[in-house]
Amino acid sequence: MHNKLLNVRLYVPDSISKHSIIRLDTLASHYISKVMRATKCNHVKIFNGKDGEWIGEICELSNNIKIRIDKLTRKQVKSKNLTLCFGIVKGTILPNIIRQATEMGVTLLQPIYTQHIATSNINLDKCRKWAIEASEQCERLDIPQILHPISFTDLKKLDTANINFIICDETGNGKKPAEILTNKNNIYIIVGPEGGFSSEELNFAYTFCNGLSLGTRILRVDTAVVSALAYVNEYYYV
């Protein structure tokens, strides 16, 4: 069947409207034509984070595939504000954090410099690529924003009156989720690096943060991210 809907969902930066023509980049075109074995007249899902989700028909197969937009399938819905601040990590943990945070509904990712980070380098272009891939796969309508790193202490300079800062405290001093997840519009979850927060950082954090306990075990950073965000989804964003 030439007009079948492929199991393909793509993010594009272009504006999307009925009957518009979207030209894919070479990577997306290669994936559709070589990996998914698409043919002309096959249909795919398209979204851009602003105009909802659409179904489009492949109208030209080339190194830059063209897709003619047919119909809107899901209207754009604004995600609730949810920020994840995380100590910069290296290796496979970083893409795990970005992908899992995207799947769990984070709208803003803020890397932070802390005393125990193993590296100060972070590739924001790669982070955005991982976020896009995760949004494509989890049926999300938007892409989380990824900011340039800041110092952990700079968080206190933000609008603390309207932000519920929640730091994941592995020392056992944190509270239960139901005690600290209030109905403020902005929740900032703060997760430390692989070496955890220093005692000085924790003391500083408690001048403007609520402490969250994730249990008695010491978790990997990416596991802590999922655990904390699961609490947010259960107790607040329901």
Automatic annotation (TrEMBL):
UniProt keyword Nucleotidyltransferase present:
no
* Main location class: cytoplasm
Q: What enzyme class is recorded for this protein?
A: transferase
Query: Its GO CC terms?
Result: cytoplasm
Location of this chain's protein in the cell: Cytoplasm
For this entry, list what GO says about its biological process.
Answer: rRNA base methylation
Note the CDD domains from the entry.
RsmE-like (cd18084)
Gene Ontology terms, MF aspect: rRNA (uridine-N3-)-methyltransferase activity
Tell me what reaction this enzyme catalyses.
Answer: uridine(1498) in 16S rRNA + S-adenosyl-L-methionine = N(3)-methyluridine(1498) in 16S rRNA + S-adenosyl-L-homocysteine + H(+)
Q: Which is a Pfam family this sequence falls into?
A: Methyltrans_RNA
Record EC number:
2.1.1.193
* Residue intervals of the Ribosomal RNA small subunit methyltransferase E methyltransferase domain: 80-232
InterPro entries recorded? Alpha/beta_knot_MTases, PUA-like_sf, RsmE, RsmE_MTase_dom, tRNA_m1G_MTases_N
Keywords, ordered alphabetically: Cytoplasm, Methyltransferase, rRNA processing, S-adenosyl-L-methionine, Transferase
Function statement: Specifically methylates the N3 position of the uracil ring of uridine 1498 (m3U1498) in 16S rRNA. Acts on the fully assembled 30S ribosomal subunit.
- Family assignment? Belongs to the RNA methyltransferase RsmE family.
Q: Which NCBIfam families match?
A: PRK11713.3-2 (NF008694), RsmE family RNA methyltransferase (TIGR00046)
Q: What is this protein called?
A: Ribosomal RNA small subunit methyltransferase E
Originating species: Ehrlichia ruminantium
